[in-house]
Amino acid sequence: MVTNSDDLYQMILDSAIASIPSAQKGCIMLLNPKTDILRFVAAQGYDFDVLKNTYLRLDQTYLYRESKGEIKETVVIDDPFDYDRLNLHDDNIDTILEAGSDAVYTTLSTPVMLGRHALWHDQY
Predict the structure, then answer these.
(1) 3-class SS at 76?
(2) What is the pTM of this model?
(3) Which distant-in-sequence residues (6+ apart) come within 8 Å of 18 by Cβ?
(4) Each residue of 29-42: b (16+ CB within 10 Å) or e?
(5) By three-state DSSP, how is residue 67 classified?
(6) What is the predicted pLDDT for the residue at 106?
(7) N or C: which end of the chain has fewer CB within 10 A?
């Protein structure tokens, strides 16, 4: 039974991961549209105690960078750790990498939209 938004986000994430046969980990981030800052609200396969105190700017995300700011659909990133090392240099990125240090071969980054605005996105 879902009693709060945190439980709802975790249930959505768990269902999304279960629906992708090779998925082993993921997270959901919630966007504050006034600041363009994302915060982690659910995680599986990552140390959520670390992630819940970590924030990302929207322009640091796979979705934003690969869509050139036109976030509309899922993007696929092969070897996301290498992608992060080449494209992003920030203490928050290092923290995220440490929170889920197992190898990730491919990441799906998917926006959930309300009208033309991204509410959150998840990564697998």
Answers:
(1) strand
(2) 0.74
(3) none
(4) bbbeeeeeebbbbb
(5) helix
(6) 77
(7) N
